[in-house]
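Quick one before lunch.
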Amino acid sequence: MGIQPFLVASSLLLVVGQRLARRLCPHCKEVFTPPPALLAELGIDGPPPDFYRGAGCSMCNQTGYRGRLAFFEVMQPTLTIKEMIVARSHAEAIRQQACAEGFMPLREVGLRHVLAGETTIEEVLRVTMEIS
Ligand SMILES: [Zn+2]
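Model of the zinc ion complex:
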């Protein structure tokens, strides 16, 4: 963007990414076991956790969804990350460093909402598609 990296590093306080996903209808959601291929794609091995889907009912106009769910990824740049910005490190390297420091990417945050029965894996994959 034509901004000097040290100016970015010194003024950056927090980086937030957010997505909106459709929330599962609480009146008709049901447990199901996703196909093994999907579990493998998500990096889930061992006994599969419960996933949920909306069967569709009169409360959700047969869509299986009712309302929206917002979820966020939040990165507070550490000294190491600020040094990487100044050194013009590649964005992916910065992302990997952030993950090593505890940063949880949107797709992982979304997966936790899936496992909590709040939305579907299809919704999380759909709204996080361009970032992973
Ligand atoms: Zn419903």
